[in-house]
Design brief:
single chain, about 120 residues, alpha+beta, S-adenosylmethionine decarboxylase, 6-stranded antiparallel β-sheet, 3 helices, about 25% helix
Amino acid sequence: MQNPSPSPLGRHVLADLYGGDAAQLADPVLIEACLLGAANAAGATVLNSHFHHFGEAQGVTGVVLLMESHMSIHTWPEHGYAAIDLFMCGQAQVDLALQFLQLKLRSETQTIQMVQRGLSI
């Protein structure tokens, strides 16, 4: 009898969003709300978060620590670019977090990579 296909312990998404609005990408309140909203959309449990704004018209760096792993964002408003890292395990739905961020940040072009983590052998 064959073993069933291994299931990943978690899914890790790396998303590069290009062509975003500079004012949005420089707004620390909006960026924090987007990441916390994405965690909620995914059904994840937020344990803590920290965001840093680099100054007027500058980027934002933020991380959200989840019971199911983590999410982070780094923005470069001057380039219309956001780098997003979403790693979730358990029942959290990383796809829903990504969809939420894509909708809210309204980028023109996106590059998305999905890695399945912790595959058993």
